[in-house]
Design brief:
18% of the residues lie in helices and 28% in strands. The longest helix has 17 residues.
Length: 212
């Protein structure tokens, strides 16, 4: 009798995944300038020091880990050959940036975004309209990619993510997260494994020595 009440198990259409991949690829192309070269392409008008560059890392840093120098506004991704890829970033506005040692607990391409209750309470005129979430896409606040920062098994709601506001790079502009230009985090994303450590250094102390 039960079999008469329920149909056979539903099967997700085979084209669904490929459609999603196709949409991601189209958005990637939309946010990546033609002829993009990470070290030189700069339609956003960033200070040249904020463009990606490979630097010599200080000895003893763990390959794969991420270090955010909040004062200089740099993110370093440590490589296995003793170098690091350095990117310009924006950090949280005063009082919202949260230095600490975190784990990259999750990664997502073109994620959906929902502001936290604290964000909505603090600035309802900006965030209340997105209380039910913002669909993925080039205008989404998390941009093209997001790395989710955890403390143990707890999601901190801090992210390293792309931004539709690239001219904010180099400043204190976010509600606590670390922002990157979308093509830059697309480059970084595939190089970062879940489980690596992300060190976010204080924004009010002296520069952290991360390069040789």
């Amino acid at each position: 009798m039960t079999s008469a009440l329920f149909s056979a198990p539903l099967v997700t259409p085979a084209f669904a995944a490929s459609d999603l991949q196709g949409q991601w690829a189209a958005w990637d192309a939309q946010v990546t300038p033609p002829g993009y070269v990470a070290a030189t392409t700069n339609p956003w008008g960033l200070h040249p020091r904020l463009l990606p560059v490979r630097v010599e890392a200080r000895a003893g840093l763990t390959p794969g880990d991420i270090h955010v120098d909040a004062i200089a506004r740099y993110l370093y991704h440590i490589q296995s050959d003793g170098t690091a890829m350095r990117y310009g970033v924006a950090i949280g506005r005063s009082g919202l940036y949260e230095p600490g040692t975190y784990t990259v607990g999750r990664k997502a391409k073109w994620p959906r975004w929902t502001p936290t209750p604290q964000m909505i309470e603090r600035e309802p005129e900006i965030y209340a309209q997105y209380a039910d979430g913002m669909d993925p896409g080039p205008g989404n606040a998390l941009g093209s990619r997001a790395l989710y920062l955890f403390l143990g098994s707890r999601d901190t709601y801090l992210r390293i993510h792309g931004t539709p506001l690239p001219r904010s790079i180099g400043s204190r502009a976010s509600s606590g997260c670390v922002r990157m230009v979308m093509p830059h985090i697309i480059d970084l994303y595939d190089q970062v494994e879940t489980g690596v450590t992300a060190h976010l250094y204080p924004a009010e102390e002296g520069n952290v020595e991360l390069t040789a």
